[in-house]
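Recap for those who missed Tuesday's class. We walked through two folding examples back to back. For each one, the amino acid string is listed first and its predicted C-alpha cells come directly after. Nothing is annotated here on purpose, so try labeling regions yourself before you check the end of the notes.
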Amino acid sequence: MGTERKVAIVTGASQGIGAGIAKAFRQRNYEVVATSRSIKPGVDADMLVVPGDVGDSQTAQRTFSAALERFGRVDTLVNNAGMFMAKPFIAYTQADYQAYLSTNVEGFFHMTQRALELMGKQGRGHVVTITTSLVDQPMNSVPAALASLTKGALNAATKALAIEYASTGVRVNAVSPGIIKTPMHPPEAHQALAALHPMGRMGDIADVVDAVLYLDGAGFVTGEILHVDGGQSAGHHRT
C-alpha cells in the first residue's frame, strides 16, 4: 500500500504552519514524513517523524532515506522550515546572518537537491516552498532585510528550478504569505499585525494550507509564487 499512496515530506513540521500542512496531507490520505529540530514522535503509523536541523545536510539524507525505506517514494516536498527576525539592517549580527542562511537557504538547498534527484528519476513530483510577501512589498514598520535576502532568493530559485525541471514531470512552486496567526505572534500584537494587511486581518494557518494543497493538485502550474497575504503584494494601503 505504501507504494500506491502519495508521500509528502514537510520541514518545520512541529508546530504552526508546518504542523497544519502535515495534518492536511494526512487528512488527504498521504503518508507523511515530518521533520524539525524539536519534533516529537507521534502515534500515527502513517506519519514518520525525523528530528533534525534542516540546515544540516545529514538531516536531508536521513529524511529521504527514511521516507524511501518506510514508504518507497516521495511525491511532494514542502520546504516550510524558516526563520524570521525583524531588526534594522545594521542591528543584525553575524550570528543572525548565519542562522538565516542555515535555516532559510541551506535547508532549502539540501532538501530540494535530494527531492529533485529522486523526483527526476521518478518522472513526477512537486516541491513547494514557503517564502514571504515582504520580498515583494517591504514595510518600514517591519524591517526585515535578511528575510528578503534569503526568501527572495528562494522565490528566484523556485522559478529557475521550475524551468530546469519543466520537461521532467516535476513541478516547483512557492507560497508567499503575509503575517500568519501562529504561536510566534502574541495575541496582544494581533490587532496591529492585522492592520498591516489591506484586508484588515492576519492570515490563518488554514489559508496557507489551502494554498499548498491547491498547488499540489494543480498539475499545469509550475514556477508560481502564490501570494496569500491579504493584498499586501498588490500595493500600498493606508490604515
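Example two. Treat it independently of the first, because the proteins are unrelated.
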Amino acid sequence: MHIVIMGCGRVGSALAQTLEQQGHTVAVVDQDPTAFRRLGASFGGRRVTGVGFDQDTLREAGIEDAGAFAAVSSGDNSNII
C-alpha cells in the first residue's frame, strides 16, 4: 500500500521508517527540507518539500494512489485540515 505522511518530525519519521520496513511505499511531506534528515540515508521513499494540505504537493506525494494518509505535523490546525 502507498502511504502519504504529512510531517517529518519524530513521529512522522519513525512511522515512515516502520511502514517502509513492513513493505509499504511511503511519501513524506514537510515544509522544512532539513527535516528529512530524520529519515536516514536508507529510506527509499519520496521526500516532498511543501505544505501538506496543498493539492499539488499531495499529488507529487502520490495521494491519488494512496491507501492511507497520516497527518502528524506539529500544527494541530494543519493536521485537522
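Answers for example two:
Residues 2-80 form a domain with the Rossmann fold fold (CATH 3.40.50.720).
The mean pLDDT is 94.
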